[in-house]
Amino acid sequence: MIKIAVDAMGSEGGPGVEIEGAVQAAAQYSVSIVLVGQKDRIDEALRNHDTTGLPIEVVNANDVITMEDSAANAARRKKDSSVHVAARLMRDSGISGMVSAGNTGAVMATAKMILGTLPVVDRPALSTVLPTQKGKPAILLDVGANVDCKPHHLEQFAIMGDIYSRAIFGIRRPRVGLLSIGEEDSKGNELTKEAFTLLKRVRINFIGNVEGRDIFKGDVDVIVCDGFTGNVALKLSEGLYEAFASMLKQELQKTISAQIGAILAQNAFRQFRHRLDYSEYGGAPLLGIKGITIVCHGRSNANAIKNAIRVAQEFCKHDVNRAIESEFKKLGITRTAGVT
Length: 340
Prior knowledge:
Elements: E1 2-7, H1 16-28, E2 31-37, H2 39-46, E3 56-60, H3 71-77, H4 82-92, E4 97-100, H5 104-114, E5 125-130, E6 138-141, H6 151-169, E7 176-179, H7 190-201, E8 206-210, E9 222-224, H8 227-252, H9 256-264, H10 266-276, E10 284-287, E11 292-295, H11 302-317, H12 320-331
Parallel strand pairs: 1-2, 1-4, 2-3, 4-11, 6-9, 7-8, 7-9
Antiparallel strand pairs: 5-6, 5-10, 10-11
Helix pairs in contact: 1-11, 3-5, 4-5, 6-7, 6-12
């Protein structure tokens, strides 16, 4: 049985949210859970759930990395934090994957420091899944692991995104696009222009430049960009959804006829919210790291934690890391020695 470590202290609602999500995952999926964090608090929260027969164990970690902590300092100094202990368990004790809704920067820094990157990868990339008009989800990467990138980094991100799409979503030949300011080959800055040239040579289904408005159409399966651009796009998407939901609610409450219409259309609204609900997609896989690391939103609910565990399990089942190494070697993509 695949065993996943869950940082029980990471989210804003921890450890209750992580424990509820872990219990749901252990009950619904064939997966073993290791809850990592302050044992007394975890044990107390576990008493609120029926865990009879569920493969859940607890490993103590005394320290907690907060959202206010400096990512680099916390990764180096808080060595008894739940994130540190979970990463060491994955490195040393047969744990297949790790899920955390903690400080994103600290989770990434800790994973890179303790686990290291795959030997073929220069930099890991944080990826996220976004809904599209055509139903099939689109993968956007990088969304924050690398603020400054070089063209060969985007090339590697594209290949990892292609493997992710094929392995997890079963898309035989994913359409890979480069996020830019225009569809024409000549559009973009120096980074995207040079990356465009590299991607044209790689044996993936590269369809060229795509614009921000194309992300949600469903005509591209993998969208590649640097972490600064990707993080802005992701946060803009989250803010737009929240603003849209709030404005729609305001309009539906203005008149009696609008309220009646809302009642009649409530099933459609429910389905709409479900399609856009980030918690259905779990967390963001950190591609290129040894071992499987899934980073969740700090405001994650139990459903998000449950689905992040499912995503970690799927990555393990499909052996995505081995697929990345194999594909890089097959394509002749090698780590750039001395260039990060």
